[in-house]
């Protein structure tokens, strides 16, 4: 594959040289117009008057006014259920070939999100753009000869009536281009193994026969796989098995919380590239090494809107108030948390994906993920978002020289007083009292609303440390290991009681 690797490297460099600078705002306007025109004769397009919207001078403003926000339940109950019943031309022309199964976070009931052939093509377009961006990184030609370990969910998709179902990583892996199959590991047969533990065991058994240059997957599950490979072969680090490993493409969640523990599995430094692939589409990817931020994919099947992330716009169940203002790409500012709203070529329209983002560079349309709308703790006015929580935990890691890759918390009433009760995933023996005090102080310094709440209705902070593996076992008990499963950072009272009961059984 050395010759092919050189060809790929040359093609990437050539494409980068020939690529002209993009205008994300114009690209988004074109995407919206194309999508509305394509879907104007669907049931959704007729109901909401897409043809009339297209006649307006300001299409994006007309679109905002005509279409309400939809969360999954609204989109599914009113529209997607009809697709599952066998009807066509509902929210996108024809019928989707796939449904992506996603619970977003650990949960027993999966969402079923349509994935059309147009979306498969859009994901491929963004994937090619991401690969092309490797021209900006200082990678040697022989890197492109090496194999890629993509650790996702099973590619053995389930047949449900006329549709194939699986997690989005399994769907995309089952649609990889023919020329890439020689590079792709663990290979089609192993990738079809549904049981996570069996699949990882098989990967460990075969690991030495592969020359892996890049890894791709969710950090928490990738860590577990690497630990299994290292333990199976009784070596010090993963570079003893894969000496040519140079890149990790992280996706699903932010990499930063896992960075400290992940790098301890390596023999030397590697390049980390963040991506944002969700069940609804490939949203963004890191396009240059000077920043950890990701570039929105503004020209490939997804139209973005941004709602300021303020408590008055978020309903108790995490959905959006219909009077919440939505901004387009030319109206946003850096450093502000926004709820991400998407419309896609899979027939999702003004859809609340559940993530919050902030712009780091508006002109380049570069973002970072800051949290989830449901992972927003506002009991007694504390107004804690996930990014504030994770920033505080990074402070703890630095202060006590420990690793905290996983956590969850809830607001609990104890003896008539509210406390924030945290479970921190760490193997450190640091005093829980010291951790609670430092965590409380960090949050007070970083969040004015939290400081006010601590002076009034929020009595204090309680910290319990547990082995990080307990979080992975909880995920396995509630759904299954691997794939797109992500740990809930903020739990409601009932789920938190279940979590504590699970811990007490360990």
From TrEMBL:
Any GO molecular function: acid-amino acid ligase activity
Cellular component, GO annotation: cytoplasm
GH3 C-terminal domain segment(s): 390-493
InterPro entries: GH3, GH3_C, GH3_M
Segments forming domain GH3 middle: 299-362
Name of the protein: GH3 auxin-responsive promoter
């Amino acid at each position: 594959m050395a010759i092919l690797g050189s060809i790929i490297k040359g093609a990437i460099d050539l494409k980068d040289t020939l690529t002209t600078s993009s205008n994300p705002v114009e690209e988004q306007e074109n995407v919206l117009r194309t999508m509305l025109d394509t879907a104007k004769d669907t049931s959704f397009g007729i109901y909401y008057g897409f043809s009339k919207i297209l006649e307006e001078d300001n299409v994006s403003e007309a679109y905002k006014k005509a279409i309400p926000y939809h969360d999954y339940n609204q989109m599914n109950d009113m529209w997607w259920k009809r697709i599952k019943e066998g009807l066509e031309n509902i929210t996108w022309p024809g019928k989707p070939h796939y449904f992506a199964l996603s619970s977003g976070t650990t949960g027993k009931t999966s969402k079923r999100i349509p994935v059309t052939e147009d979306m498969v093509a859009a994901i491929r377009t963004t994937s090619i753009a991401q690969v092309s961006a490797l021209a900006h990184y200082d990678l040697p030609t022989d890197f492109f000869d090496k194999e890629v370990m993509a650790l996702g969910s099973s590619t053995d998709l389930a047949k449900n009536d006329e549709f194939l179902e699986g997690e989005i990583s399994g769907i995309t892996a089952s649609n990889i281009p023919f020329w890439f199959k020689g590079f792709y590991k663990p290979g089609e047969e192993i990738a079809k193994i549904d049981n996570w533990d069996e699949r990882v065991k098989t990967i460990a058994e075969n690991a030495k026969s592969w020359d892996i240059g890049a890894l791709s997957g969710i950090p928490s599950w990738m860590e577990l796989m690497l630990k299994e490979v290292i333990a199976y072969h009784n070596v010090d680090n993963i570079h003893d098995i894969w000496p040519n490993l140079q890149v990790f493409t992280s996706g699903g969640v932010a990499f930063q919380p896992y960075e400290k523990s992940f790098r301890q599995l390596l023999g030397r430094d590697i390049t980390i590239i963040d991506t944002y692939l969700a069940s609804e589409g490939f949203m963004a990817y890191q396009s240059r090494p000077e920043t950890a931020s990701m570039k929105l994919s503004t020209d490939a099947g997804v139209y973005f809107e941004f709602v300021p992330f303020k408590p008055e716009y978020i309903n108790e169940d995490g959905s959006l108030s219909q009077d919440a203002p939505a901004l387009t790409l030319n109206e946003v500012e850096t450093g502000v948390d926004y709820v991400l709203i998407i419309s896609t070529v899979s027939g999702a329209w003004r859809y609340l994906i559940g993530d919050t983002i902030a712009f780091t560079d508006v002109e380049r349309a570069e973002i970072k993920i800051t949290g989830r709308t449901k992972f927003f703790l506002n009991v007694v006015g504390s107004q804690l978002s996930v990014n504030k929580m994770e920033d505080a935990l990074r402070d703890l890691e630095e202060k006590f020289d420990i690793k905290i890759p996983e956590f969850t918390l809830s607001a609990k009433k104890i003896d008539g007083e509210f406390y924030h009760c945290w479970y921190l995933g760490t193997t450190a023996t640091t005093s829980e009292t010291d951790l609670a005090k430092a965590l409380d102080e960090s949050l007070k310094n970083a969040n004015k609303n939290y400081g006010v709440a601590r002076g009034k209705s929020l009595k204090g902070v309680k910290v319990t440390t547990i082995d990080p593996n307990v979080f992975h076992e909880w995920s396995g008990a509630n759904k299954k290991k691997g794939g797109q499963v992500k740990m809930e950072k903020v739990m409601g009272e009932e789920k938190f009681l279940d979590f504590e009961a699970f811990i007490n059984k360990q």
